[in-house]
Amino acid sequence: MNSQELRAVTWTAAAGDGTPAVSLIDQTSLPHTLERLDVTTVDALIDAIVRLVVRGAPAIGAAGGYGVALAMVQGEREGWDRARLDAEIARVRAARPTAVNLMVCVDRVAARVDEGIAAVLAEADAVVREDLEANHAMGAHGADWLLKRAAPDGDRPLRVLTHCNTGALATAGWGTALGVIRELHARGRIEAVYADETRPLLQGARLTAWELVQEGIPHYVQADGAAAGTILRGEVDAAIVGADRIAANGDTANKVGTVAIALACAHAGIPFMVAAPTTTVDLGTASGADIPIELRGEDEVLEWSGVRTAPAASRGHNPAFDVTPGSLVTALVTERGVLEVAAGELPGTRLK
Ligand code: MRU
């Protein structure tokens, strides 16, 4: 299977039992099995978002968009009044707090509820279509910029580091940071990708590595703790990551561990690139200090595969994201082009 064809989130008019469903690639079972989970209720969709069956900011946004349609269909089946429907849509919107795409997409699609289910589904489809287009555009912009900045002398292939999973699985398709990497590979300009395993839930080792295998892109999976050393030893030319929310001053929330990569890149003097669609830019949030950071369950860091690895008396600290100061982001790539954030061109100046 070529991951260009992967669709993490789709709408299915008639799932197994004939009920309309949001159909999700179950990312908890990768890389071992590629299977879909069809959810037919708001509760099941929220559970899927919380358990990371579907994850990655744009993919959660798409799931939220179709979630509005799902709530309408369930409401019709179960006789909900408008207040109940609005409350259920609000629950979908709040399923995870950090990725602003969820709120943006739910609000955009929910604005069409009065026009009926066909209009709602058309809007959710548009969210998906536009995200896919945005990813291809940012892939091209990001690759152009990196080839100029990270390999200015000649046409040697690049060694890039990435964190978490930002590929087709995390989006409507193709990917953001992984989309830039995929574009570089298509141009014959990738020597190797260093994919951080991404503790504690291993989105890098399980999902990014799986996508890289599908694409035939040479890569190494490394422990998160190896990233700074790999960068400081000069073994990579650039780091490329995605984002869950970018504040107006360029501060960027992304998977926990990202800020350490940015610090190492700054020290080494190599580009730290953030690739994200404009739906991830939140001009209503002034700085990273105002971005809500999801704190997940302690067991995710205290256990492995259900087996306790830390002493019984230990407490866990499990922030799912961290914030990289905008001053450490060399370049922000969106579908509209490249902003050189660290050079003083803040998202708010050109993305209004
Ligand atoms: O907890 P996750 O797996 O949803 O976290 C995902 C990330 O941090 C991604 O880097 C981000 O959402 C961008 S996905 C294109």
Keywords:
single chain; 352 residues; alpha/beta; 7-stranded mixed beta sheet; 4-stranded mixed beta sheet; 16 strands; 38% helix; 17% strand; globular; binds 5-S-methyl-1-O-phosphono-5-thio-D-ribulose
In the predicted model, the low-confidence regions spanning at least 5 consecutive residues are: none
Query: What is the topology, as strand order, of the major beta sheet?
Result: 6-5-4-7-10-15-16
- What composes the largest sheet? 7 strands, mixed
The coarse silhouette is globular
Number of strands: 16
Query: Measured on Cα atoms, how large is the radius of gyration?
Result: 20 Å
Distinct compounds present? 5-S-methyl-1-O-phosphono-5-thio-D-ribulose
* Tally of DSSP helical segments: 11
Helix content: 25-40%
Report the portion of residues in β strands: 15-25%
Q: Structural class of the secondary structure composition?
A: alpha/beta
Distance between the termini: 39 Å
Secondary-structure element order, N to C: EEEHHHHHEHEHEHEEEHEEHEEEEEH
Average pLDDT, to the nearest integer?
A: 95
